[in-house]
Amino acid sequence: MGVVVAVEGLDGAGKATLVGALADAALRRGAVVETLAFPRYDADVHAGLAGEALHGAHGDLRDSVHAMAVLFALDRAGAAEDVRRARATQDLVLVDRYVASNAAYGAARRGEDVDGPFVAWVHALEVERLGVPVPDAQVLVRVPGELAAQRVRDRAAADPTRTPDGYEADAALQARCAAVYDQLVERSWLAPWSVVGAEGDRAEVTRTAEAMVEFWLSGSSRCDVASGSSVRSDTIET
Fold it and tell me: Which single residue of 2, 96, 97, 123 could bond 101 by disulfide (Cβ 3.0 to 4.6 Å)?
């Protein structure tokens, strides 16, 4: 039975880079690893609709916090069997964005905190009703909002096909979302959390990833060494 780890954070935080470092660290240990990423814009019709709405399509669909959250939840529900299979057959399953993203972004859009009704609604919808598997551990890539926003702009400048969507372009939303993520960490919402911080270099990213993988594969769901880690945000790319 493998360990499912969800990597969370703002748009532009560096989740994909951390997922890659974690996968490499696990492979060096001889582990069998699988990676997944949500939303699956090109593979799931619900995610595709949500992605189009984020870029202005489908009328006022984007205006409904709950409607968008349902689409993202249905995307994960459609992959639930894949997650269960991977957990049963792999040593480590790394997921770039998961249920906590829905909770954080939706609560932030509604101006709520972790104790508001939206976070509880997401849990009831995704976990209790749709049966989305609960991760064994979660990692928050915590970066300053201005750095994440600059990364999104740089990414768009380098690739005209990756124009910022409605969430990425909303700096105030990103700031509120960061606050909700911190609250989710404090409450150990859904599963234990570790936090990757904002100092260090690429070598430190590798060392932190190796320490986290060692903890998870040795049977621990929370890597204490990562909670105060010093991974510098400007060295991590999404």
Answer: 97
All residues at 6 or more sequence positions from 116 whose CB lies less than 8 Å from its CB, including other chains: 107, 110
More confident residue, 16 or 3: 3
- Least-confidence region, from 21-35, 102-116, 161-175: 161-175
Q: Which residue type occupies 152?
A: V
Which helix (DSSP H) or strand (DSSP E) does residue 186 occupy?
helix 171-186
The answer to whether the beta carbons of residues 193 and 103 sit under 8 Å apart is no
| pLDDT attached to residue 117 | 98
Q: Where does residue 10 rank: exposed (0-12), middle (13-18), buried (19+ CB within 10 A)?
A: buried
CATH of 3-36+80-235, one of 3.40.50.720, 3.40.50.300, 3.10.180.10, 3.90.870.10: 3.40.50.300
Instruction: Report the phi/psi class of residue 197: left, alpha or beta, with left for phi > 0 and alpha for psi in -120 to 50.
Output: beta
Report the pLDDT averaged over residues 181-185.
Answer: 97
Spatial separation of the C-alpha atoms in residues 130 and 114, rounded to whole Å: 21
- Residue 88 dihedral angles phi and psi, to the nearest 5°: -75, -25
